[in-house]
Predict the 3D structure of the following.
Amino acid sequence: MKSRWIFAFFTIALGAGALSSAGCRSESAASAAQTRNSAGVPVQASPAARRRIQTRLERTGTIQADNDVVVVSETSGRVWKVLADTGDKRAAGAVLVKIDDEMRRAACEAAEVGCEKARRDQARYEALAAAKSATDAELEGAKLAFKAAEAQYIVARRQYQDTEIKAPFGGVITARYVNVGSTVAPGTPIVEIVDISRLKTTLTIGEKEAFALKVGDPVSVSLEVYPGKSFPGTIRNIGAKADAAHYFPVEVAMANSEEAPLRAGLFARVLFSSLSGRETLTIPREALIGSVRDPYVYVIEGAAARLRRLTLGEEAGDLLEVREGLKEGEQVVVSGQNNLRDGAAVIVK
């Protein structure tokens, strides 16, 4: 019984010693951390400075046909002949589809006869009026009858011509929507035709680039389907109105190539080679916290680091253009920012 009491006494004594030692270590670590925090976190900084950067503006887009339309019927009736199929090339004015024209041809011929009769009646009344054998009212009636007959003939001739649906421009048929025997009405899609002899790419650029570029500037277009090859193009239009993100639409025109033929729908990279180097406010890329879409940096203010949001522009190698948020000469942290928080004390090495 006495030995049990002795064993319990020694166990309690050993536990109290361990707790005392752990407490001392914790107090020592806290004291060291407090000393370190009061002294400041060691960091390296670099000033925001104006540097000359070579702007390389490249944007992506999709190549589109310069002219791409769906040809629709302007009359009603049954399809009599289909003279074009998907993949066929057709010149401007070529007949693509013929609609049953028997009734309209007859109506056109009748209207032509009526117009010719009215024209002759007018000529006859003009001769009679000159000989004082017809009244002015009779001559006026003949003139009005000729105008009405001529208008009827024009309408009938147009309706007859509309039975032949023609290509509005030269191009390739990419879709056909009717077959022989199909019944169509005004507005019914007939075929889709695209002109790929001229191509275009629509993309967007920032507001500064929109004023640095101009219509007619040369560009270079590259495509994944032709590695290492570039195609020349020109800026055809720069939009007069920006979108909600302050980006302007730009249309780039280019001719198709016979050696390396292009097609609509290809993914393209457009390099604006006309932009020259310019001087602007920059910071090193390593100062950035977050992404270029949501950029922050730590700025040295006195002996503290302050978190600040920036508005960035172009990227030029290891430099980032700063449009808003910094002034020239302000120091930004480029190393050690992972250990910082807003307002933390720092020691600049």
Notes: Helices lie at 2-39, 102-130, 136-161, 207-212. The domain at 67-190 is CATH 2.40.50.100 (OB fold (Dihydrolipoamide Acetyltransferase, E2P)). The chain has four helices and 22 strands. The longest helix spans residues 2-39.
